[in-house]
Design a protein that fits this description.
- The complex is a heterodimer of chains A (291) and B (756).
- Chain A has 291 residues and is α+β, with helices and mostly antiparallel strands.
- In chain A, 37% of the residues lie in helices and 25% in strands.
- Chain A has three domains: 48 residues; 117 residues, Uridine Diphospho-n-acetylenolpyruvylglucosamine Reductase, domain 3 (2-Layer Sandwich), CATH 3.30.465; 111 residues, Enolase-like, domain 1 (2-Layer Sandwich), CATH 3.30.390.50.
- Chain B has 756 residues and is an alpha+beta fold.
- The chains are: A alpha+beta (291), B alpha+beta (756).
């Protein structure tokens, strides 16, 4: 494998071959949308490196529904996630999150695999994927696959437990048997084309007008999204409605305080979290109305 | 002065539009030359350090041609801000620096056969920083424990005054005090700084630069490198935005040095990181303002103290403090007023021109203070401003203002306030705006006024030269030292000459500044002088040319001058023959032995004030602190608009910069002087979805000293929208935020402070 070469496998078999080559090298990088790669290379002033293009492999570009889970190829773009009717109907929060990533141009290129494997603390799809208990399907140089819960795979701040000869191949999202609701919101320095200061995903099931299951993740306040268990347990068993909002504001602030007790940004984030809690609350209300 | 114009005020289309939208326009970075080399600057990673550089490894990289450091370049200090040789300022910059004084300071240049080779060479430089104590912020600067240049970090201090403030404050019933601050702002031109230098076949140095003042570049390059001025040719290229950022030569001396040394063309194109860190910025300020008013709401006294963060080099330390101060005496009638300005050195990006030059900072805080003054006597902020605003000055050549500066001229600030508040529906909005409030969202409206100038007259030499000639093919050639910074300066000049001569603007060529072909211009395209001064000069030259054309025609056709008329490129006598201007030029040469040409040296006739008022409505999210500007009306006292499309573009663009300063733009450093906002993921401009539609309104009442009544527009446009937004935020929330920008964090902090 030589520097300044561009490898473009078209099948999983070819991919396994290049992964074998990649195994013992530290100057080989995957490229899908290149929206992170280009920035990183420029920042680190790297002029000599090899790249493996993942965008020619059909299996990695599909969204498929299987029984009670969804398979999302790692090279599915943010625009595709935003516009896919399957994603919209099955994992609305993911569509919402993807629609808030970067600009139109970025969303046309950036992929869910990149957003996941790049493991940025502000990654917008991660809180959603964590809240769905999503798993990463990894493919290695021997053509073997392994399935790891994303929350366990991601270390954060750019690190993962993906091995040198592995590639994130697909994301598997369990959907459960029951109808569920989900929403996403984020806060950045401005309305659009902005990096999250906090992001937030909520998924819930409702039985007999009461919350029977709930999962909430807060992102950008740690190396990777943090589970807001206090908020979840408060809601469980309660009726979904306006009365939840004030207590959720309070608990949201507590979750922030616990996550970043010494950071000066907590003062702002403890208040701002109210904004995303209310945004998602309103979004869930809309979904419940059209039910 | 209402006249029917043929071309003035009309929406004539600029001739570079099609190429620009199709990406065909060539910028310096698109230019290539045979044997051209590529330069990459090494900029300092440390805010203050003695730098030692080992070139050995870099020189071994294939394709690296040379590495230059401070040891290689002439040791002649210069001040890049010096735009004419007679400006007396201390000089503290070098082509490349041995002591790095800020992160981003230029410390070496790697030159390679390809951009990649230069980049690799840059990576292989071994840089040793012997770190020195760092001065960041005003407090550190004032301690003088570490002195950046000379004997103190106080780079400049001066007061201006009229009357006696102690007497004024004695007459006041109420004194309103405010303090506030404004940040360092990056110009954010799409085109980063770039330059190309080469030696022509005659041995002249040719510098291609997207600059604002070719004669300043010529002066700085010739002085820094010790080469003859007359052999230094500077050509202004197409520019991808400047906003003052390219007003000061940064790359030109080092690029020219490399081209001379290597005797090959050298091109340098900066990256965004270096443009933010290593060029110039708007000066940050901290301000204290006291205003004394009577119960009736009349301002009787004011004291303004502003301190400026001048950054690591002297550059504009004096100029920005003075430009800021002078404006304070030209907006409201204040009998007793005093201003004190102080500029300090710090180990941060040096200060430089930035659209509005001091005005945005002055009005940022003083217009909040004016609102608080109105509130103190229970007056509407618009009515309070109308009560205190200056009146138009009777037209007297040589008139002065309260501190002896040139008169304010036909100052239509009151019209801006009155007509603007009607167009904005101020009275109605004032009553209804808060009815939109919810638990989460608060709505508010704000107004702010501002003043700016028209050139350097009264402060510095302000004159220009015009050479205008009728060509045989019925076209007009205008030679003058203008620089189109994207504002449409060329078209403005075409329309002025077209009006004077009655000929289609497209038949007039106005090439941009080139020190070998343009006649001398004393101050360049800056200080809001071009339409007023250069346009004034061109109109006068064109009028003289018209006279010469009429006289020539009369001689040639033996008729009286009275009945000769010039329309649409033809000249004729009511009973005689109609010929084109080109034919007249040919006949004049053949039969009268003269060229239809005028050469004029023109001194600026004044420096009238221009006024603006902005009205804003905002929606503030009390949870997230995010602000949405939902309505913005910008009103400008423009004298006479030359081209309405260009004028609207200027006002809309200025509003974008000003709202950015109010809400999100800020160059930030940590305590060690590391830059925290080196690119647009950290330095937040207002983007299109967040930008409101800007409504514009122009008051066109004519300025007697300006060409066809015109005066400046573009810089003033960046002054009042931000303070109006800030006043609207404070109106919505009941806060008194006066530190710019009002980031979400600052808004939430102000709200929590108010609650506790």
């Amino acid at each position: 494998m030589e520097n300044n070469q561009f490898y473009s496998p078209k099948t999983m078999k070819e991919l396994a071959l290049v992964l074998k080559e990649k195994k013992n090298k530290n100057d080989v990088f995957f490229v899908a949308g290149a929206t992170d790669l280009a920035v990183t290379m420029k920042k680190n002033r790297r002029t000599d490196f090899a790249s493996i293009d993942l965008t020619k492999i059909e299996e990695m570009k599909k969204i498929e529904k299987k029984d009670d889970y969804l398979e999302i190829g790692a090279c599915v773009t943010m625009t595709e996630l935003t516009q896919s009717s399957l994603i919209q109907s099955e994992i609305l929060a993911l569509s919402m999150a993807a629609s808030k990533v970067g600009s139109v141009q970025i969303r046309n290129r950036a992929t869910i695999g990149g957003n996941t494997a790049n493991a940025a603390q502000c990654a917008d799809t991660l809180p959603v994927l964590f809240s769905y208990n999503a798993e990463g399907l990894l493919f290695d140089s021997n053509g073997q696959t392994r399935l790891v819960k994303l929350e366990d795979l991601i270390v954060g701040f750019g690190h993962t437990y993906i091995n040198a000869d592995e590639v994130l191949y697909k994301i598997i999202v369990p959907l459960g048997k029951q109808k569920h609701y989900s929403a996403f919101s984020k806060i950045g320095s401005r309305k659009t084309v902005t990096i999250s200061k906090i992001n937030y995903a909520i998924r819930m099931n409702i039985e007999n007008e009461h919350i029977s299951d709930m999962s909430i993740y807060l992102g950008s306040i740690g190396p990777k999204p943090i589970r807001a268990s206090k908020m979840e347990s408060y809601c469980l068993g309660k009726r979904w409605g306006q009365d939840l909002l004030e207590p959720l504001f309070e608990l949201g602030a507590q979750q922030i305080e616990e996550a970043i007790p010494t950071r000066s940004s907590r003062h702002y984030k403890k208040v701002a979290v109210k904004g995303i809690i209310e945004d998602t609350f309103n979004a869930l209300n809309c979904q419940l109305e059209v039910k | 002065m209402k006249t029917e114009f043929q071309y003035i005020g009309k929406r004539v289309e600029r001739q570079d539009t099609a190429d620009k939208v199709r990406g065909k326009t060539k910028y310096v970075g698109d230019m290539t030359r045979a044997d051209m080399l590529y330069g990459k600057l090494l900029t300092s990673d440390k805010a203050h350090a003695k730098v030692t550089i080992d070139k050995t490894k870099a020189m071994m990289i294939k394709g690296v041609v040379a590495v230059f450091t401070n040891e290689d370049v002439p040791q002649t200090p210069y001040n890049s801000n010096q735009w004419f040789p007679g400006a007396a300022t201390a000089e503290d910059e070098y082509v490349l620096h041995k002591i790095a004084k800020h992160v981003g300071d230029r410390i070496a240049l790697v030159v390679g056969e390809t951009p990649e080779a230069a980049e690799k060479g840059l990576n292989e430089l071994v840089v040793f920083y012997d770190e020195l104590p760092v001065v960041i912020g005003f407090e550190e600067a004032k301690k003088n424990e570490t002195v950046i240049f000379g004997t103190s970090n106080l780079a400049f201090e001066k007061s201006l005054a009229c009357g006696e403030i102690s007497e004024g404050f004695d007459r006041a019933d109420i004194i309103i005090e405010d303090s506030g601050s404004t940040p360092k702002v990056h110009h954010s031109a799409i085109e980063n700084h770039s330059c190309l230098a080469e030696i022509d076949p005659f041995g002249n140095l040719v510098v291609w630069s997207p600059c604002q003042v070719v004669f300043q570049v010529q002066h700085i390059v010739a002085k820094a490198l010790g080469i003859p001025y007359d052999k230094t040719r500077v050509i202004k290229t197409t520019i991808g935005g400047s906003f003052g950022g390219k007003g000061i030569p940064i790359l030109e001396p080092v690029c020219a040095f490399a081209a001379i040394k290597l005797n090959r063309p050298v091109q340098i194109v900066m990256e965004r990181k270096d443009s933010v860190a290593g060029t110039r910025s708007r000066n940050a300020t901290i301000q204290k303002i006291r205003t004394g008013i009577t119960k009736e709401g009349r301002i009787v006294a004011r004291e303004i103290v502003s301190e400026f963060d001048g950054g690591a080099y002297l550059t504009n330390a004096a100029a920005v403090a003075m430009a800021f101060g002078k404006k304070a005496f030209r907006l409201y009638k204040i009998k007793d007023q005093k201003y004190t300005g102080r500029t300090y050195f710090t180990n941060t990006v040096p200060g430089g021109a930035c659209r509005g030059y001091g005005s945005p900072q002055l009005h940022a805080v003083s217009e909040i203070n004016i609102n608080n003054a109105a509130k103190a006597v229970g007056m509407d902020p618009v009515q309070f401003r109308i009560l205190n605003a200056v009146d138009p000055q009777e037209f007297i050549l040589g008139a002065k203002d309260d501190i002896g500066m040139p008169g304010i001229g036909n100052a239509r600030i009151k019209d801006c306030l009155i007509q603007g508040s009607e167009a904005f529906d101020w009275e109605n909005k004032k009553i209804t705006v808060s009815s939109k409030n919810t638990n989460r969202f608060a709505y508010g409206i704000g107004v702010a006024a501002g003043v700016h100038g028209n050139g350097y007259h009264g402060g510095f030499p302000d004159y220009t030269n015009v050479d205008i000639q009728v060509m045989p093919d019925n076209r007009i050639m205008v030679k003058m030292g203008i620089h189109d910074l994207g504002c449409g300066t060329v078209l403005t000049m075409q329309q002025i000459a077209a009006e004077a001569l009655s000929i289609n603007p497209k038949s007039i060529n106005v090439p941009q500044a080139d020190t070998f072909t343009s006649p001398y211009d004393s101050a360049g395209t800056q200080a809001s002088r071009v339409t007023f001064v250069n346009g004034g000069a061109l109109k006068e030259a064109a009028d003289l040319l018209k006279e010469k054309m009429i006289t020539s025609y009369a001689k040639l056709f033996n008729c009286s001058v009275d009945a000769i008329s010039m329309i649409d490129g033809t000249i004729g006598h009511e009973e005689g023959k109609k010929i084109s201007y080109g034919e007249l030029a040919i006949l004049s040469e053949a039969k009268l032995e003269t060229t239809l040409k005028i050469y004029l040296e023109y001194k600026s006739k004044g420096n009238p004030a221009v006024y603006a008022v902005s009205f804003a409505e905002v929606k503030v999210d009390k949870y997230t602190g995010l602000v949405e500007v939902i309505d913005l009306l910008a009103v400008q006292d423009a004298g006479q608009v030359i081209n309405m499309t260009l004028a609207e573009g200027q006002v809309e663009g200025g509003a974008h910069m000003s709202v950015g300063m109010a809400l999100s733009e800020e160059i930030k450093y940590d305590k060690q002087g590391n830059l925290k906002t080196e690119n647009f993921s950290k330095y937040h401009l207002i983007n299109a979805p967040s930008m409101p539609k800007v409504r514009t309104l122009f008051i066109q009442d004519g300025e007697p000293l300006g060409p066809y009544g015109a005066k400046s527009i573009g810089e003033l446009a960046a002054v009042t929208p931000g303070p109006a937004v800030m006043n609207a935020i404070n109106d919505a929330l009941g806060t008194n935020i006066s530190d710019y920008p009002a980031t979400p964090e600052r808004i939430i902090e102000a709200l929590s402070r108010m609650r506790s």
